[in-house]
Task: structure prediction
Amino acid sequence: MNWLRRWNARSLASQFFIAGGLISIAAMFVVGLFVSHLIEEAVIHNSGAATALYVDSVIAPLLPDMQTESLLDEASAQALDETLGQGALGKRLVSFKLWRGDGTILYSNEKELVGKTFAISDKLQRAFAGSLVARYEIASDPESDKERALGKPLMEIYNPVLQPWSGQAVAVLEFYETAEGLGDSLAHARLRSWGAVTALTATFFLVLSVLVFRGSRTIEAQRKDLKERVDELSALLTENRGLQRRLQRASQRAAALNETYLRSIGADLHDGPAQHIAYASLRLDSDMLINASTPPDAREKELAWIRSSLAEAMTEIRNICSGLVLPQIEKSSITEIVTRVVEAHQHKTETHVETIINEDGPELPPAVKICIYRFIQEALNNAYRHGGGVQQAVRAASRKGHVRVEVSDHGDGFDPTEVRPTSLGLVGLRERVDSLGGAFDIKTGEGGTTVTMIFEPMEVGE
Result:
């Protein structure tokens, strides 16, 4: 079955060329043999007919009435000897026989055959039936020892002798002639017939091959184009399934992180402002404020403690709210967004951040702008908390919808494997970027940490 697989692996044009070539060669061989055989028979028959007509015109007047004569008289035999032994016939004819219907040789230039009877061959039967029989071959009949001894093909002709008034064959003239030049004529006829058949077959096959190869190239081009389109669609479907899985995972993790954010906010409110307010509430119920005998100085001091606790609670509540509420950035450019978040970080931490901005692109969706703001904010905070804010830098670029934001520092770095899945910082950034179809990358080591976020044009448009 290996040959079948190799055959099916070939192109249609190649299959046609091989199969069609073999069939064309076989057809050419069969047709060539048939045509050359017909041409040979026609040449031999025409040549034999011409010779028979000539011999018949010379010999027929010398023959007696063959319907009444059983043997030739001496005068007729002598006339035939003289006619066949000299002149043009003597040069052309190798032998001559006159047959009677029962297979008896009435006359022959080989005298030892006269009066002998032989079995009637198929050629004799056809001649007695009135047909001219011509063959170009080495003699093989029992009575043709002399002709066979020559060892070369001869023109063998059986010509019926017909009655003038009835047209019935009463005898048959058999004669052999040298037929010089006939072999060359037959060879030339064969060559021409084979050449014609070969040229016609080759032309027909080449024309069909050209048409098939053109069609095959068209089919192969269409097949290749279809395969490329199918591959593209398959790749898009695979990518789409991957994006769906990423989106589902991002949505699930975003929901979990949202719950974590809520618990973190609740913990911050409980551990911070709630404690200060609870402390103030307890001091309001203290005896020092309720008892009228409390000295004014002590009462004023107690109220100062309550005001201080409430002020600290308000400060912490504002700090928590400032981290939850973003400034209006929907209509801001990337340059304005990066500048705003960097200045806020520098003011809060009293550190310096190197800023490089290269903006030359279309307007970005609000979700991407918010993601850029939160990404830089969280990355700078992590750089300050874990890397000491050493040589902080922000590089942002937007070209034709391709967005790349990079935040780096030269701190001590950290081990990414130690980041817990429930961590709100880097994990939250990764989930936010993934949910928008972007790419998130972290490189950290002894030389510092670099966090990168990338959005491709199509993903941004989505």
Remarks:
- The CA atoms of residues 361 and 374 lie 21 Å apart.
